TrEMBL record:
This is Probable exopolysaccharide synthesis protein. Coiled coil: none annotated. The chain crosses the membrane at residues 58-78, 132-154, 174-196. The lineage of its organism: Bacteria, Pseudomonadati, Pseudomonadota, Alphaproteobacteria, Rhodobacterales. It comes from the Bacteria. Keywords: Membrane, Transmembrane, Transmembrane helix.
Length: 197
């Protein structure tokens, strides 16, 4: 089903996050346990949405999200059945009120994605291309800790991963193209910053 048929994959993920962040302190373990250890795409969507939220202003938060994205994507690449993340990442705490504010900000993004996603351009979602998308997500995740000091880079990469995850979740090849464009744009940001120095 597509968004036009009433299915809202990103909105449903945001709704489930909203149910978790009612507490005063929330760990990444709390967030991922909501989706289960075999739900790779929703799990991938969680840190990518968080890194484009106001929470990205917290020092090292983008790095943690990036490493989480990289670990999840790597396990998707090797077709692992159950998700595993290092305990160091899973223990990271997020302030409850800040998390609730971030989730509310995500609603607009989620609604826009769900409203515009549908089944199209399936050639970009065939088995070899899906592996390519997963590899791109992994590379984006590993790049985030190195780009934390470059303004907007982590958020652009987070947006790219969100688009690629949506492409795989909603089977929308157009979002795969948009995600690839976002990655190319993010790659140009540090080049521009270095050139301006």
């Amino acid at each position: 089903m597509d968004a036009q048929s009433g299915h809202q994959p990103v909105g449903e993920i945001v709704d489930r996050l909203d149910a978790v962040v009612k507490r005063d302190n929330v760990s990444l373990r709390d967030l991922f346990e909501e989706f289960g250890e075999s739900s790779f795409l929703p799990a991938l969507m969680v840190p990518s949405l968080l890194v484009v939220s106001p929470l990205s202003g917290i020092p090292l938060f983008s790095s943690v999200c990036g490493l989480t994205i990289a670990f999840i994507s790597a396990q998707m690449l090797i077709s692992r059945k159950h998700l595993w993340l290092p305990d160091m990442l899973m223990r990271m705490k997020i302030d409850g009120p800040k998390a609730r504010t971030a989730v509310q900000k995500m609603r607009g993004v989620g609604a826009w994605i769900d409203r515009h996603s549908r089944h199209r351009l399936p050639v970009f979602l065939t088995a070899p291309m899906r592996k390519w998308l997963q590899l791109l997500c992994m590379l984006c995740g590993f790049a985030m800790p190195f780009l934390e000091i470059v303004p907007f880079s982590s958020s652009l990469l987070g947006s790219a991963v969100t688009l690629l995850a949506t492409a795989m979740l909603a089977r929308d090849g157009l979002f795969a193209l948009l995600g690839s464009i976002a990655i190319a744009t993010a790659a140009l940001v540090p080049v521009g910053v270095i050139g301006a120095i």
